[in-house]
Amino acid sequence: MELAFCLQVAPTAPLSLPWSEAQLQKLLQLWLRSLQQHLPDARRRRNYAVSLRVVGDADIAALNREWRQRSGATDVLAFAALDDPMPWPAELAREPLDLGDMVISLETAARQARQQGWGLDQEFAWLLAHGLLHLLGWDHPDEEALGEMLSHQQGLLEMAGVVHRDEPGKVWAPEQLPLEQSCPDGHGAS
User: Fold this and answer.
1) Fewer beta carbons within 10 angstroms: which end of the chain, N or C?
2) CB neighbours (10 Å) of residue 175?
3) Where does Zn(2+) bind (predicted)?
C-alpha cells in the first residue's frame, strides 16, 4: 500500500515530536491496510494521501474556534476530504484517495499523557489513530458510537505493538515497535 504522507510541525509546537516521519507513515500504512475490510467499497484503495500538522494549544484552539465554534484547545482535529463515500471512476483507481488533514496539539497530547500515566509517544499514537478513523468516516455522536470507535483505536494500537494486549500499561518505545509485522491480510507494513 502506498501512502502519500505530508507532515508539518509548526514552529510554535512546544515539544519534540515523539515519532519520526517514517514511523508515522508506517503506522498509518499498517492501520489503513488493516481497516480495509471495515471500509465502504468507495474508500477501499491501494493508495491514499493524508496530511498531519503538529501544533501547540494556541494554534489548535484557533482552528477549533473557527471550524467547530468551540473555545479552547482540543487534542486532535480531523478535516475529512470526503464526507460521503462516492463511486471512484475506474480511470482514477490508481490515484491516491485524499483522506484529508489531521491536526494534533502536542501540548494537549503531553498533558493527557501525564494524566493517563503513559508516554507522549503512546498518547500521540492514540490521537493519530482517532484522527485517522474520523478521516475514514467513523464518528461518535453518542456513547455507543464512541465506545465502538475507541475499541477500534485500541485495536489499532495493539496491532502495531504500541500497547500490549496482556499488559495494557506497558508501552514500546517508538524505535522498538515491531512495525514490520504482517497485517491481518498477510501483507507487511511497508
Assistant:
1) C
2) 9
3) 130, 134, 140
| 181: pLDDT strictly greater than 70 | no
Separation between Cα atoms, residue 178 and residue 182, nearest integer Å:
10
pLDDT tens sequence across 69-124: 999 999 999 999 976 656 666 666 678 888 999 999 999 999 999 998 888 999 99
134 is in an annotated binding site: yes
Cα-based distances in Å from 110 to 76, 96, 118, 177, 186? 12, 32, 10, 20, 35
Tell me the pTM: 0.83
Q: Using CA atoms, how far apart are residues 97 and 44, in angstroms rounded to an integer?
A: 9
The domain locations on the chain are 2-173
CA distances to 29, 71, 87, 139 from 67, rounded to whole Å, are: 28, 10, 27, 16
Residue 187 annotated as binding? no
Site of grid cell 494500537: 157
Element (H or E) spanning 73, and its range? none
Q: Which superfamily does CATH assign the domain made up of 2-173 to?
A: Metalloproteases ("zincins"), catalytic domain (3.40.390.30)
